[in-house]
Design goal:
Layout lengths: L3 H6 L7 E4 L3 E5 L9 E5 L11 H19 L5 E7 L15 E7 L20 H16 L5
Antiparallel strand pairs: 1-2, 2-3, 3-5, 4-5
Bound molecules: guanosine-5'-monophosphate.
């Protein structure tokens, strides 16, 4: 059965897309732990990192730094970034389709050093707010940053 990310990849449910190619899709995480919180997912269904073959490993590991740089370039207030992936229910994985969190950090973001990716700030975001952030990052991606 298709999971929520399969449905986003298929265009069956909307997402604020950041980057897309034949192998991967990056889009805003609905929860926006911090502004710019992005998910990078393989299009093919890998449940988690334990399913990865060499090709998707190389693809993801090459894209993560490029995407991180592109996101950081959107706002000088972004001074750091947490990059993580929960693999397996015991590790807190809630969507059974491999994904990588890129969570910009701001000097005044009031998060603890230990990141809690389950924080949900979606109530603070309307369509316009998501679109503004997505457009900024998309444009930064288009300005290359190695993608
Ligand atoms: P996990 O807890 O598995 O590491 O992360 C799953 C992430 O998927 C959560 O941060 C959650 O906010 C995000 N998420 C769940 N459903 C949707 C959705 O329909 N759209 C988007 N953009 N993000 C989602």
């Amino acid at each position: 059965m298709a999971d929520i990310f399969d449905q986003i990849i298929a265009g069956e449910i909307p997402a604020y897309k950041i980057y897309e190619d034949d192998d991967v899709l990056a889009f805003l995480d609905i929860s926006q732990v911090t502004p710019g919180h992005t998910l990078l997912v393989p299009k093919q269904h890998y449940t988690n990192i334990f399913d990865y073959d060499e090709a998707i490993t190389n693809k993801i590991m090459t894209l993560i730094p490029a995407l991180a740089k592109a996101i950081k370039a959107t706002d000088p207030a972004i001074t750091g970034m947490n990059i993580s992936s929960n693999n397996g229910e015991s590790a807190g994985q809630t969507v059974p389709h491999s994904h990588w969190h890129l969570i910009p950090r701001y000097d005044d973001d009031d998060l603890n050093d230990t990141l809690v990716p389950t924080i949900d700030n979606s109530a603070n975001y309307d369509q316009e707010a998501y679109e503004t952030i997505a457009t900024q990052i998309r444009e930064s991606v288009e300005d290359s940053h190695g993608l």
